[in-house]
Amino acid sequence: MKKIIAVSKGDGIGPEIVTEGVKVLDTISKYTDFEFELKDAPAGGEVWKKHGENLPDKSFQTIKNADALLFGAVGLPDLPPGTGESAVLKIRQGLDLYVNLRPIKLYNVLRDKCPLKEEYIGKGIDITFIRENTEGLYKNIGKLEKDSAENLMVYTRKGCERIINYAYKFAKRMGHRKLTSVDKANLLYASKFWRTIFHEIGEKYPEIEKEDIYIDAFCQWLIRAPYKFQTVVTDNMFGDIISDEGAFLIGSLGMAPSGNIHPGKVSMYEPIHGSAPDIAGKGIANPIGTILSIKLMLQESFNLVEIGNEIDLAVEDALKEGRTVDIKHKDLKVLTTSEMGNLIVDKLKNKLKN
Ligand code: IPM
Ligand code: MG
Fold it and tell me: Tens digit of pLDDT for each residue in 37-47?
């Protein structure tokens, strides 16, 4: 079967990491019945410099006509804040990608890179954050005036219901026992509303244990006992913050993938890190966040769960032999971005051949 993948390399390290992701897609095309055709869809700060737009119409059309979007990272330090970055929000809003799926998994081989004490890591870290991705504080409702500035946090019933429904279904699909909802219901109306809907929908899922936790307490528990959590659903801003905190726990922000999803429609897959202009062009960025985003794409957009799992195993095998500098180990070779990508592709080839 053939699928069209729009590719936005973006700015900074974006092109370097996406190149490694593309190697993985090409490998799958070569060794399985599945085929990917790639179409360039430039977005971000570099394209803004050329065309005065961070998401030219042509790119957005290419994305809309594709089966999925592989996205690198956007943002340049020599442009006003948000000039490149807002392309991401435009795509999320424009395609109504209301789910932001952000799994964090600590590979056993990277336990030494986790900043937590062994006893706190305990049974390990394997959490999926499900962040609401189209409402709340990030929906551009606000104003900046001379003596004040404001943003409104608005949550609608439709917005809460669809993300919370997705989260219960996801927890069930993954065989998770518990779903945690993170909010600030002791203060915010938007959170009280969210919490009520969390429990209303939960009645359809008696087999799943429901847990409510305030965002401030959650941030503490996430570093004190991360093994307590499996699937975590939360609003847009809290999800933005805790997914970065979580990514830090798995050894490097460069390891964390994400999917911006509207089930059944064209969805966007991107590593959660930014364009990191300070290390761009040096060949040292970690491509694993991008490669694992492709795993998510296969799993969520194309139902290719097995190939997705092979990618995961290929990454784990590769990490035993060499690593990029952000996760380096004294007994292992330090690899460049493309060497890391090649090593993973090598492992993947062998798995797909068998
Ligand atoms: C993320 C990023 C974005 C967000 C920025 C670039 C707008 O931080 O994907 O988490 O806040 O959603
Ligand atoms: Mg963020």
Answer: 999 999 999 99
